Request: fold
Amino acid sequence: MYFPTLESIATRQVITLRGDCSVREGARAMARYHVRNVVVLSGDGEYRVLRAADLVALRTDGIPFDTPLAALELPRVPTLPPDADVLQGIARMRDGVGYLCLTSERGTLVGIVSQSDLLSGIDPQLLTESQALGELMAGTRFLQVAAGDRVHHVFMRMRTGGQDAAVVLDGEEPVGILTRGDTVRLLAEDASLEGPVSEVMSAPLHTVPDSCTIQEALACAREKGYKRIVVRRRDGSLLGVVTQKYLLALFYNRWIGWFKAQNEELLRAQRALRAERDRLALVAGALAEGLVVTDAGGCIERINAAAAALLGVEAGTFMGRPLAELLPGLSHCVEACPGGPHHPRCPAGPLELRRADASCITVHLRCRPLMEAGRYAGAVVFLDRAGNGAQAAP
Reply:
């Protein structure tokens, strides 16, 4: 299965700041470039990130925004090479900060990947999940606040609950949402946080019904660029919020489960194939008739004891070598034919072969092509010393 490389979906123009820049400069950079994070270049060679959620935490904790970024315990950003694929990126980001830095072999920062970028690299058709959101979201938590709540109070609840957004209700009716973008704008402008959240929220609120499937939710998030999807029940009440992290985790878990099931099926098939080969090896070894098996290129894969004794050779010395080396007299019979270019044709009559001790013997040959999925995969050659039993028809 093909997944795009992280390099193909990454943001190449990364907004970076030195550690001696202030928190306020970080917030203003986010607002200026319409991003939700800035990468901080720390002196220890690690990449750290200042996020919208960090701004909320600093503001609610009363940390001055003129504090240098280097003085903060900002989270480290995991790194991956640019040629890693989307599935590897999801796995690496699962327990991280929601971002990945792409670094070259020399350690140079060449791009950043967010959860939104990862979603853009997933074809919704690959997520063969047709369950409705209403069946999958039981017990999910999301933050609801009243339209009249002060922004500062909402920020406190976001910080306490580990939320990066809040759905705003007017009574029972959801009317808007306070997003990370709203948060960055307010803090970058040093706006007052004493007013009601309804004055600064994003509105109107776009929702999807709980009958919407995961496939449809993913397609909607990609098409409209939503960071989260608000889901309503059939009666119009609010069911929950589907985040990008939720969609990525669901996609990853479904595919990992599928890969594991496929791998187990493959292992079972391999075990069955090995058992069948072992049985065939026992049968081949017990045959009084000589038997040689080749691959599609005409090289020997198996030679039984009877064939080795007939030709006066040790079987192991010819494994992997061309059949023509073992049976030089057969070389004129190996030609293009319906079986394959290296499939030996049966000679019209007995064939004289020179044994390893330079003596000559006359043998009858029977050849059969091995076919796999309609393609030539090798040949089976039976050898009988002329005069030792009836020759089967080729």
Remarks:
- The two ends are 43 Å apart (CA to CA).
